[in-house]
Amino acid sequence: MLRTLYIENIAVIEKCAIDFNLGLNVLTGETGAGKSIIIDSINAIMGQRTSKELVRTGADTATVSAQFEDINGVVKAKLGEMGFDADEDMLILQRTISASGKSSCRVNGRPATAAMLRELSVNLVNIHGQHESHELFSPETHIDYIDSYGGIAPVLSDYADKYKSYIILKKKLNAANSDESERLREIDLLSFQSGELFDADVRIGEEEELESERGVLMNVEKIASLLNKAKLLLSGDNGGCESVDMAASALRHAADYNSQYEELSGNLTDIYYNLLDCAEGIGDAVDDLESDPARLEEIEERLDLLNRLTRKYNCSCDELPALAEKMQRRLEELINYDKNRDELIAECAEAEKAAHAAAQRLSELRRETAKAFAEKVKAEMCFLNMPGVELVPYFETVGLSPKGIDKMELLISANPGETPRPVAKIASGGELSRMMLAIKTVLAASDTVDTLIFDEVDTGISGSAAEKVGLKLKEVSASRQVLCVTHQAQIAALADTHYLIKKQVEQGRTFTQVQPLDREGRISELARIIGGVNITEAALSHAESMLG
After folding, report:
1. Domain that holds residue 30
2. Domain for residue 115, yes or no?
3. Distance of alpha carbon 87 from its chain centroid, rounded?
4. Is the residue at 58 inside a domain?
5. How many domains does the chain divide into?
6. Which residues contact 86 (CB under 8 A, 6 or more apart)?
7. Mean pLDDT across the stretch 462-479?
8. Sequence-separated (6 or more) residues with CB below 8 Å from residue 482
9. Is the pTM here over 0.70, yes or no?
10. How far apart are CA 27 and CA 10, in angstroms?
11. Cβ neighbourhood burial of 303 (10 Å; 0-12, 13-18, 19+)
12. pLDDT at 31 over 80
């Protein structure tokens, strides 16, 4: 759950730390007090797109950090995959936004990316705002609700794999069916290029070998001079060989008086013979060394060819043989066009058949699941003061697409006797909010997210409907943490913890604070919501009775 949210220099909030609790956490306050800033801050920590406009005027940076406790196993697994410590039950996410618009992220104090925050937050926090209700106006989003419910994921994944294979083969077939003149032009080009590379007969490592040999041929005289110098130092008068031999002889004579010098004498004798071998080897090397201008010219020409080919084909010398093989394979494909095309047609047809079969299995499961889903959502909507509602999943079969062969829309009838119609045509703002809350409630049963946030889910409702929404939020909060921004006293009265978002102006600057309310504070805030600016005794009495 979200334990602590710390906000610094975000819009009108200079510094603020909010400690949330389990159960239903409600945030209220006057319009413009900064409730949306709390949601914007949570969105920032979830890795969503931010703007430099969030940074408080006059500040260089803004910071948001969130501490989560008792994180679930899915989040721990993702942390491990990302290389972070996943043993602890606590997680701290942090994001800093500069006035220039750049941002930096951290996970448990270590550098991270916004993409990592997004991936982690999927199983940490789920925000339902007013804009999400309007997603119901887009029928293409309805099928996603069905796919998120009822264990469809494995079947959907199987279809996605088969559909991807089919699309790849279809693209290859379309390419094979390209213009005949283009095919002939490519055959002509590849024939020349592959022939050029095969004629060159480049070997892996050849360039390095040639450069080494060229270095020797270009420095024959210098190498000969150095070799002769080394030979002279070893085998010349008073050279290394003679000196070591004399030292070994002296130690042999010393051993006549003390045997402990025999080993040293033997070692020096071994060194003497090794030095003689070295001197002989150097002599052979000098004899073998000779200038070869013709070979040097041959090497220069070969290196020039290799250099020209690497520039032409934009690759290293060692990559040229593989490139030649690749060109040859493509050339054979083009030459054997008819045979390959027939094979590709067969493969593509088989892949399309497999994709259709997988799509059919997915469609059957969706239709079965959609009925159960609609019934559960309908039951939730009935509880939310829409007793005559009907919810009908309407399916159409379409061609293969990334989502299968289904086009699905949830049709609604808000009143008995009315024909179910598209949501956009009949649902009011209040009905839309309650429908979305009902959908979220049903999906929450199969969701791993521990914290649900509802931002003004009470839009367009009042009275008993608002109370029912509050009771539903209270019910959901029994199994997971719920945060709710509301304007309704009926909802706020059901909170386990109630926070007041309050702004004040000091020395020409606006400051927003968030403070938890005790019982007296809650009575006062509920009375404000009920009665407006002028809080009457009747409003206070009503507020107190709402709290029981």
Report:
1. 1-124+449-517
2. yes
3. 22
4. yes
5. 1
6. 76, 77, 79, 80
7. 86
8. 23, 24, 25, 451, 452, 453, 454, 473, 476
9. no
10. 18
11. middle
12. no
